[in-house]
Design goal:
Order of helices and strands: EEEHEEHEHHHEHEHEEHEHEEHEH
Helix content: 25-40%
Distance between the termini: 34 Å
Structural class: alpha/beta
CATH class of the largest domain: Alpha Beta
Radius of gyration: 24 Å
Bound molecules: adenosine-5'-diphosphate, magnesium ion
Number of strands: 14
Strand order of the largest sheet: 6-7-8-3-9-10
Number of helices: 11
Largest sheet: 6 strands, mixed
Shape: globular
Amino acid sequence: MEPVVETVDLTKTYEGTTVVDKLNLRINEGEIFGFLGPNGAGKTTTILMLLGLTEPTSGVARIGGFNSTREPLKVKRITGYVPEKIGFYEDLSAGYNLAYTARLNDLPDKVIDQKINDALAVVGLSDVLEKRVGEFSRGMKQRLAIADILIKMPKVAFLDEPTSGIDPEGVNQVLDLIGKIAKEQKMTIILCSHQLTQVQRSCNRVGILAKGKLVAEGTVDKLGRDAFAGGKFKVEVQLTEITSRIVERIKQIKGVLKVDTSGDTMVISCTQDLRPQIAREIVAVDGLLVQMKIQSYALEDIYMKYFGEAV
Ligand SMILES: Nc1ncnc2c1ncn2[C@@H]1O[C@H](COP(=O)(O)OP(=O)(O)O)[C@@H](O)[C@H]1O
Ligand SMILES: [Mg+2]
């Protein structure tokens, strides 16, 4: 399958400093690709080159088979872009702003009102159609930006830091919406973020950028396997009572790396899924198991591995 978004050795240098370094990305149609990495990693610069808004120093960026540098107009026609600082006309209403996008994209007059109503309904902003965008919260603006994308209906949408500055409830609304439109509209979505933990659940695949270089790429699961060579699991066990005898027995199980206890809960780090062995040891000393959960790789752990710091 031909990728819908592709970069080949894409490089950008500002005054002698390389901020995007021989980047090779391939993103397939319909994917939600998480383009992740700390601030200053080069994510926005990469998007701007893909959109044909800034020229690469070397290498190639392509969207839908068009060369972003040589055919920027063709690229613009099939892409949507929500920058970190969303640019709406603050003095105008939500509806007017969307109508502006509709006209810019040559939508026939007779369908515009319906399109606007439909798009606002999807993002839950129907009741603020006539409200000035200047009065919107950041979360509302982000949802309006998604409505804007639904008006344009591009093949590929780039969302730059869509969750920054939004409260947790708003973040969930935005991420749910992104998932919904990717699925229903078969849109390819590139989600740029430095907030890995927030966005990981929404991405089919992620690429982690550090200092302009792609340091890891794949599903969250695959990255976990690569990062921990052999795998890492955490088993969380809740008991009616934790005794030192139980803890000692569990520490003896082959593959158990660490046991932390807190109240009635034990968190056991291990190299493999040791739930059966753990349950056996608990039962052997008449412990009463309330529940047992397993967590596998979390993107936070991967982030720690690549950047050596917490998110
Ligand atoms: N127009 C510019 N001129 C000079 N340096 C820039 C410019 N734009 C970005 N940079 C630098 O390039 C690096 C990558 O920035 P950026 O792509 O915005 O990172 P990210 O989006 O991952 O936070 C940063 O060090 C930033 O300061
Ligand atoms: Mg950025």
